[in-house]
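Can you give me the bound-state structure? Components:
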Amino acid sequence: MKKFFSSRKLNIVYSVIAIAFMWAVWAIAYRAVGNKLIVPSYEQTFSELWEYLKSRVFWTALGNTVLRTLIAFLISLALAGICAALAALTNALRAALRPIIAFIRIIPTFAVILIIMRGTEANKNIAPVIVTVLVLFPIIYAQIMAAVDGIDVGLKNLVKVYKISKPIALFRIYLPCVAPSVISQTGANISLGLKIMVSGEVLAFTLKGVGGLMEDVYLSYKVANLAALTIAVVAVGLILDVLFSQLSRITKKWSGNK
Amino acid sequence: MIEIRNLTKRYKDLIVYENFDFSLEEGKITCLLGRSGCGKTTLMNILAGLTDCEGQVPELKCSYIFQSPTLVPSLTVKGNLALVCKDADRIGEMINRIGLKGKEKSYPVNLSGGEAQRVSIARAFLAESEALLMDEPFVSLDIKIKDIIMKLFMEIWREDGRTVFFVTHDTDEAIGLAHRIVVLSEGKIVYDETPSSPVPRDIGSEEKLRSELIDALLK
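Here's the bound-state model for the whole set.
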């Protein structure tokens, strides 16, 4: 217990050192560049951030962005789960899915946004979700397939020898084997999703979203506001990462480690 | 009798078995003894339907005790046994039998190696099968635990009376458990103890058998 606390305290110290380092880089860059339109001061940036935190528009935009990110994550997870289940059934299906997944992984997001944007205001809200799904889906699919491939051969033999029915094998043996690995990556996937979502919103100029706010302040040369919004997104991303990483506690008892 | 006829098994250019004949006496424990890489596990997997081959091999409904316990990590002791048996009373009796009363709700990660292998043995006996196959089931256990679990296995088997086929490279395990010991070398039978003997054997015949088995293994 004592060791746990000391290592935890050390981790906090390391984190504080890393934050101080980034702060120092910012301060040096600010002095070196000497142009507030390129690198804003941190006093000005945090002052703008404080103003945002008091603004209803900001919270609405942030809520919309986080909600869209969660929707995009859930769609990606569902699609990846279905495709992985199909790929796990036969090698033929796995081979057939390979070029499709590769195409989705490679397709330029900007092209997708331009295609979707040729329409109404509603598409400005949908385009970032589609782009986020296109980025997250192949990643989550690869994570699930890696977990499927990592299932103990002994368990596969157990299913064959004892002729355990397919639904029981899937839901009581294979899925719980795959779940800990996939769930442990949920936090990282969601924070990556948030990053893509904000980029998508900037490109699509989604007004009711953090990306839309960023695009707006960028066009008005409000660089300190842009930096403030970036800090807010990073903070929300970190919070989501930490919150969803706690999910892995649920599956801890299933893992092979004591 | 469970009979295998003209079995041929190749891994690319490597011939493991060629026109191999083998039989198991029903209701007895047969042991296939051999050095590492002689094809013991391959034969076991062929009987279990895990490996394909050419020849006449009966399609058996099997129970299998693997080298490692191979328990489902997300299921409790009871849950693991329920995968092969729907009768809760039988599961409860078997848990008592293997000395794990009070650990029904434990996950495999919280069991010792010996406890996990007991669950594996219980699962094999709870499953309805024509034959019980064991692939070096005691190899990962320390000598004290191994002795306890071998005794437990024999106790349950005496009541169950199922046909058992197991492979090992340990002569003491073979002598301690099997009615009939067959020594395999490079895909061929080099020693076959027929007719089968009672278990336990008397001390004199055990010593003679041990020396014969070691000779056969060194051939």
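A couple of observations. The CA atoms of residues 61 and 210 of chain A lie 5 Å apart. Chain A has a mean pLDDT of 86.
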